[in-house]
Amino acid sequence: MPATLTQLLARPELGLRPLTASTVGDPDAPLAWAHSSDLPDPTPFLAPGQVLLVTQPPEDADPYVERLVAHGIAALGFGTEVVRDGTPAALVEACERHGLPLFEVPYRTPFIAVARFVADRVAADAYARSTWALRASRAISLAALRPDALGAVLSELSRQIERPVALVGPDGAVSRSFPSGALDARARRALSDAAEPLLRSGRRAAGTVGTDAGPFAVQTLGAAGRLRGVLAVGSEGLDAAAQQVVTGVVALAGLALEQSRAADAARARLRTAVWRALVAGDAAVAASIAEPVLGPLPEAPVRVTMMQGAALAAAADWLESNADGFFARDAHDLVLIGDESTAVEVATTLAVRFDLRGGVSSGTTLDALPAAVAQAQTARNRATADDPVAAFDDVAGAGMLALLHTPDARAVAETSLRPLVAADPSLPDVLRTWLDADGVYDVAARRLGMHRHTLRSRVAEAERLLGRDLSSFAARADLYAALRASA
Question: Residue 144's closest CA among 36, 303, 250, 18?
Fold first, then answer.
């Protein structure tokens, strides 16, 4: 540890004499350096935690000492018998008043001797901390050779820096913490809340968070786009040497997590194979493949969810810890087969958390998956930014005309109705009212507030502009669909 004022004043060979009470300032605070200057205001050239040595008494002691205290100077030493004998009483009083420790340096003690003592202790402390960092890094590296490499590394880090350490998984929950019992439920929740936005961003990032167990530094683990978790380390009072050790652990923890990627990739391929077997109609084969590794497939009735987006890999990692049903990646789709009652809720959670869009089928069995897949895809096409998950039951309940509200249908409708709009912008509304009245002229004319013969004339004009006879059901249905799609 660096020198303290108490240790400095205790050196008999220096002969330093304290002039202020031992309760003034903090005599046990570490001293960063010792510097001499007789400038009226030396603070621009000093750093907090330093000792200032002077021989020239200040003209006005009170503001001089006030500036030193505001700058964080640890102590003031006055050299006697250079400019004057003894230390000015005004300086002693000012130091007492502002809480700055003051000591007297006898003429026989050169300032360089005081500076050398502080510098030697600073250098010794730096060497000791570097040596500790090397020993700690070696112990952590050896821990990485144990069977549970990640757990051993984090446990050893906690022991070496004497701070709590936690790992937040890709699902946003604290999966490990060291030492055992160091984090209560509120601290775990605070770490999870701090980690969640980092994980959702998908980018490498770091930050800090305050908890009941003290402040923590948080750092993402893994590559951008597929983060593997967040490392949280108690950061209160960590010096540069400890930070260096933590930085090494971040690399080791990331490596340990990446080593599991091969196993994860194998499981992902197995999931895809099971899914394709299900779609091909080989439910029995799919179940026999999934059972030993992935567990039993969900029992009917189930719903199929199809999701798309840029963060499918991160969503799949989250599902590894949170999914109750079956899921798989297939090309650009994330597919889920889950309980009928919770499928929409799970899909909505994924959509919000990972910015995905999806569709959920009606209830089905594993033998009827192809039809359920088509339903889920149809529903997904209806998803929007405001409503990122659509259920096929809602789509079907809205009827066939609801399917017309797509950009493609609108483009076709606007093209087919363009002659009407160009001739008379009010004509589409007239035709829509006429068709809503089932083509009955008397009813439609009353709604429009015009004579029925005028309405017949307007419909005849529309037939001429469109080049079609609107007396048939098919022609009227096509026109009605175009009017609905363009609305």
Answer: 250
Query: Strand, helix or coil at 333?
Result: strand
Inform me whether the pLDDT recorded for 105 exceeds 90.
yes
pLDDT at residue 193 tops 70: yes
Residue 26 DSSP class: -
Cα 101 to Cα 218: distance, rounded to the nearest angstrom? 39
pLDDT for 293-347, tens place per residue? 888 888 888 999 999 988 888 788 778 777 778 999 888 899 999 888 888 888 8
Asked if residue 402 has pLDDT above 60, the reply is no
**Cα 91 from Cα 78, distance rounded (Å):** 9
CA dist., res. 59 & res. 52, Å (int) = 17
Residue carrying structure tokens 């006697």: 80
Domain 264-397 class, CATH top level = alpha beta
The Cα angle at residue 486 between residues 480 and 487, in degrees rounded to 5: 90
| CB 52 within 8 Å of CB 64 | no
- Phi, psi for 26 (deg, rounded to 5): -120, 95
The fourth-level CATH superfamily of domain 5-119 is HprK N-terminal domain-like (3.40.1390.20)
Against a cut of 0.70, is the pTM above it? no
Give every strand in the sheet of 357-360, ordered side by side: 326-330, 333-339, 302-308, 357-360, 389-391
- Residue 30, φ and ψ in degrees, nearest 5: -65, 140
Smallest CA-to-CA distance from 267 within 283, 284, 290, 286 is with 290
Q: Do the Cβ atoms of 167 and 176 come closer than 8 Å? A: yes
* Exposed / middle / buried, residue 66 (Cβ in 10 Å: 0-12, 13-18, 19+): middle
- Which one, of 482, 350, 334, lies nearest residue 417 by Cα? 482
Q: What is the dihedral of CA 138, 144, 147, 150, to 10 degrees?
A: 140
DSSP 124-142: HHHHHHHHHHHHHHHHHHH
Between CA 126 and CA 244 the distance in angstroms is 13
**Helix residue ranges per DSSP H, 210-362:** 240-259, 261-279, 283-294, 312-322, 343-354
- CATH architecture, range 144-259: 2-Layer Sandwich (3.30)
What one-character DSSP code corresponds to residue 148? S
3-class secondary structure, 238: coil
CA dist list (Å): 361 to 198, 310, 383, 388: 32, 22, 13, 15
How many degrees, rounded to 5, is the angle at CA 297 between CA 292 and CA 300? 155
Residue that the structure tokens 């000015």 belong to: 88
d(CA 15, CA 107): 10
Torsion sign over Cα 269, 274, 275, 279 = positive
